[in-house]
Amino acid sequence: MTIAKIYFLLPLLFLFTSCTEASTDQTTSSLASEAGKTILPEDTAGLAKATFAGGCFWCTEAYFERLQGVEAVISGYSGGTKANPNYSEVSAGETDYAEAVQVYYNPEQISYQELLEVFFATHDPTTLNRQGPDYGKQYRSVVFYRTPEEKKIVDDFVRHLDEAGVYRDDIVTKIQPFKKFWDAEGYHQDYYVNNPSDPYVVSVARPKVAKFEANFRNKLKPEYRD
């Protein structure tokens, strides 16, 4: 698998529903509660955290959850300043937050560099404030680094992509220090799994996840390899 396999830039995606439109009737879904996921300190002992924003978090969450070495993924909001942001205002572009995911992973099983490979291969880092049918600064591409070492890894990785000519256009992904992550509402957690009939999941997310599984098969958890 090489990073050059960029397979999500499909014009047909623009014909489908957007992440925001697909969510309008999901707030009362019986498949998920408002409480969201519970991540206890004892559950994260020995785990590292990484935070990414790359479009609708329903898709981003689904990719990372399938990776061997990833123990949990939370959908939420990062990159903004307002306390306690909610989906209604974030999705409407009323805040400076981006839809993001927080990844809890075992660094002995998967590296930060490998997470970056997945991140850059599963969205278009050359489109400003847009991913497929989703428009707005809330869908911008961002890597939130936690340490100087992580920043160097990201800088080197992006430089490699540029030098290799992987993309025709310039990479616009922001590389920013991590400050705060707010969990999204409970019905957004595991959205891809819990809402298989959602129009956005059917027309946009499912084809992308299927291609991700095919191209990253050697990095998937056993249950996703069949």
TrEMBL record:
MF terms (GO), sorted A to Z: peptide-methionine (S)-S-oxide reductase activity
NCBIfam families: msrA
SUPFAM superfamilies found in the cross-reference section: Peptide methionine sulfoxide reductase (SSF55068)
Keywords: Oxidoreductase, Signal
Gene3D superfamilies on file: Peptide methionine sulphoxide reductase MsrA (3.30.1060.10)
Catalytically driven reaction(s): [thioredoxin]-disulfide + L-methionine + H2O = L-methionine (S)-S-oxide + [thioredoxin]-dithiol; L-methionyl-[protein] + [thioredoxin]-disulfide + H2O = L-methionyl-(S)-S-oxide-[protein] + [thioredoxin]-dithiol
HAMAP family: MsrA (MF_01401)
Protein name stated in the entry: Peptide methionine sulfoxide reductase MsrA
Role played: Has an important function as a repair enzyme for proteins that have been inactivated by oxidation. Catalyzes the reversible oxidation-reduction of methionine sulfoxide in proteins to methionine.
